Amino acid sequence: MALIDDSSEVSAYAGGARVEDYLALLKPRVMSLVVFTALVGILVAPGGINPLIGFIAIACIAIGAGASGALNMWYDADIDAIMSRTQNRPIPAGRMTPGEALSFGLILSVFSVTLLGLATNWVAGGFLAFTIFFYAVVYTMWLKRSTPQNIVIGGAAGAFPPMVGWAAVTGTLSWESFALFLIIFLWTPPHFWALALYKQSDYGAAGIPMMPNVAGETSTKWQIFGYSVVLAAASLLPNLLGFSGWIYGVVAAVTGLSFVWLALRLLRAPNDVSMRRTARTVFTYSLSYLFVLFLALFTDHIAMRLGVI
Fold first, then answer.
1. Where along the chain do its domains lie?
2. Which among 187, 160, 149 is positioned nearest to 286, based on CA atoms?
3. Which fold has domain 14-173?
4. In angstroms, rounded to a whole number, what is the distance separating the alpha carbons of residues 244 and 269?
5. Which of 73, 169, 194, 303 fits as disulfide partner to 283, beta carbons 3.0 to 4.6 Å?
6. How confident is the prediction along the chain (309 residues), in pLDDT tens digits per residue?
7. CB of 293 within 8 A of CB of 235?
8. 3-state SS of the chain: helix, strand, coil percent to 5?
9. How far apart are CA 250 and CA 279, in angstroms?
10. Distance (Å, whole) CA 261 – CA 289
């Protein structure tokens, strides 16, 4: 099924896509978090890596994440035109054709995977290729429009980067890298469902079966709370597996309990206005939560290397 027919494409396209439009395809805000978690995966992996090779690995992961974003915007151009928060993206705004976005995404995908494989190892390169495929095909093309579990399963794509970073250093995967994956994987549903609670009219208009639109607000709030509890427990895995110290442990405990408390407030919101306001708070907090958690792991690791703890 074509996303945009020929006549609408010609009439909507103003021509002359700018550099900023290509940068927008990369989803830089999402990419920044992906890059940071991958960087932490590289830095905490045993054995170390040549700084230049590490820089190349991070660049490849960033480019691969950007490629995923471009392919996502290519395929989702029809629904992006409906939703208020995505209407100004390059394709629905008429600044770029779908074909340009598709070509850009494919070129970046091949380039990032090939360079990462050559610079580090093909375990990392192959895993990056799988990550791009999972996000662009499994999540974007299949799950997103077919099931309210889209975020749960599809969230794995955003959780793979620390494992890719770990593999770039070690050439293998491990339980430690899986722990980092699990934290992001469990973080994804409460993060996006909080957004869906106060943006559910947008998702409904676009026909995306997000949890609030399918299961209702009460069920969604309970699931956010449940995932928050499990996430808080899973965030302690680096301590249990022995690759973090007390700095990370304290931060993980405090931020995890704060997440649970906010989810409980959302669950007990007395009316619709309060629910939407608290859902926005949960979403905003979840953005900083993951950054703070991985920053604490990075700080903890540096402190252990310096013998401070």
1. 14-173, 174-309
2. 187
3. Tetracycline Repressor; domain 2 (1.10.357)
4. 36
5. 194
6. 333 333 333 334 445 678 888 888 888 877 888 899 999 999 999 988 999 999 999 999 999 999 999 999 999 898 888 887 788 888 888 888 999 999 999 999 999 999 999 999 999 999 999 999 999 999 889 888 888 888 888 888 889 999 999 999 999 999 999 999 999 999 999 999 998 888 777 777 777 788 888 888 899 999 999 999 999 999 999 999 999 999 999 999 999 999 999 999 999 998 888 888 999 999 999 999 999 999 999 999 888 877 776
7. yes
8. 75, 0, 25
9. 26
10. 13
Q: Tokens in use for 142?
A: 């299949």
The rounded distance, in Å, linking the Cα atoms of 98 and 254 is 45
Closest CA to 71 of 129, 137, 146, 6: 137
pTM score over 0.70:
yes
106: tokens are 């494919």
Distances (CA, A) of 128 to 63, 112, 160: 10, 8, 8
Element of type H or E holding 176: helix 175-198
Tokens 């299961």 label which residue? 215
Sign of CA dihedral 293, 126, 158, 185: negative
Place of tokens 């070509």: 103
Torsion of CA 259, 178, 157, 221, to 10 degrees: -30
- Three-state SS at 114: helix
Interhelix angle 98-119/51-75, rounded to 10 degrees, is: 160
Helix (H, G, I), strand (E, B) or coil at 38: helix
Spatial separation of the C-alpha atoms in residues 298 and 44, rounded to whole Å: 7
